[in-house]
From TrEMBL:
One of its GO terms (biological process) is sensory perception of sound. It comes from Geotrypetes seraphini (Gaboon caecilian). The gene is LOC117362053. Keywords: Catecholamine metabolism, Endoplasmic reticulum, Hearing, Membrane, Methyltransferase, Neurotransmitter degradation, S-adenosyl-L-methionine, Transferase, Transmembrane. This is catechol O-methyltransferase. Belongs to the class I-like SAM-binding methyltransferase superfamily. Cation-dependent O-methyltransferase family. InterPro entries: SAM-dependent_MTases_sf (IPR029063), SAM_O-MeTrfase (IPR002935). GO terms for cellular component: endoplasmic reticulum. One of its GO terms (molecular function) is catechol O-methyltransferase activity. Gene3D superfamilies: Vaccinia Virus protein VP39. Its EC number is 2.1.1.6. It is found in: Endoplasmic reticulum.
Length: 259
């Protein structure tokens, strides 16, 4: 039995913890607790709830309006791990500046970043987006088509990246990639970057933008990118999607054979 004196001594310690990490507790509450409660109450998965909101509030064919509607839901209802509006601007600007013709996204989720990229792609470009969760992929497919992008512009590939990347050339006709957006589980970033290298899918100047390299973080990926000599690497410091108080970053890599 813990004595009341010891229990009392812990209160300031717990309070300090709560105050210092309040943003992370809030994230946990919004992303996990609220989700569990709403899942039980509605019997509908969170991503489907978000889609139902989008389909009833967004203007079909207007990608920017669909993105704004997702953002509204994420700020006012529940949390989704979309790239979000702030980091979305970095992604959008890079796509705009590099005008890539062959783009790969790893981790489609609900299709938020997919339509964000698709709306600034140059004419004739093709975006391949890979999602391993069939439920998320079904929602993304509806979101992508709702935004007005056809299968010639955006191809959604369902399956784990480790199975898909080795067959991008033979099954999907991809020769080289100009731009890769990595936003799947962080522990796969390094493995999949090396898979892209092995499969000879990268070329001089290919840009790779990797999300969440500071939170939750991808330290091995960052270390490799900075030290292997094949990439020029910079980290855009920003904040976590829909949580300004939590620091995060996006790593921008530029592949070069010359270094
Ligand atoms: C953070 S979400 C992606 C968000 C999305 N890029 C956006 O900004 O709208 C991560 C997604 O990656 C998917 N995923 C995780 N590991 C994967 C893998 N190895 N292959 C394909 N998809 C994966 C998850 O199922 C999840 O839907
Ligand atoms: Mg992300």
């Amino acid at each position: 039995m813990v004595s009341p004196a010891i229990a009392l001594a812990f209160i300031p310690f717990l309070l300090t913890l709560l105050i210092r990490y309040r943003h992370y507790f809030l994230l946990f509450y919004r992303a996990v607790i609220v989700r569990l409660i709403q899942d039980c109450l509605t019997g509908i998965p969170r991503e489907e709830r978000a889609f139902q909101y989008v389909i009833t509030h967004a203007i079909p064919g207007d990608a920017q309006h669909i993105l704004n509607t997702f953002d509204q839901w994420c700020y006012h209802c529940e949390y989704l791990s979309n790239v979000g509006p702030q980091k979305g601007k970095i992604l959008e600007r890079l796509i705009y500046e590099t005008a890539p013709l062959n783009v790969l996204e790893l981790g489609t989720y609900c299709g938020y970043a997919t339509i964000l990229m698709a709306q600034v792609l140059p004419l004739g470009a093709r975006l391949y987006t890979v999602e391993m969760d069939p439920g998320n992929a079904a929602i993304a497919e509806k979101v992508i088509r709702l935004a007005g992008f056809d299968e010639d512009t955006v191809e959604l590939i369902v399956g784990p990246s480790e199975d898909i990347i080795p067959h991008l050339k033979d099954k999907h006709g991809v020769q080289k990639l100009d731009f890769v957006f990595m936003d799947h589980w962080k522990r796969f970033y390094l493995r999949d970057l090396q898979l892209l290298e092995e499969q000879d899918l990268l070329q001089e100047g290919t840009r790779i933008l990797a999300d969440n390299v500071l939170f939750p973080g991808a330290p091995h990926f960052l270390q490799y990118a900075k030290s292997c000599g094949r990439y020029r690497c910079k980290v855009h410091r920003t904040s976590l999607e829909y949580f300004r108080a939590i620091r995060d970053g996006m790593a921008e890599l530029c592949y070069t054979k010359l270094q």
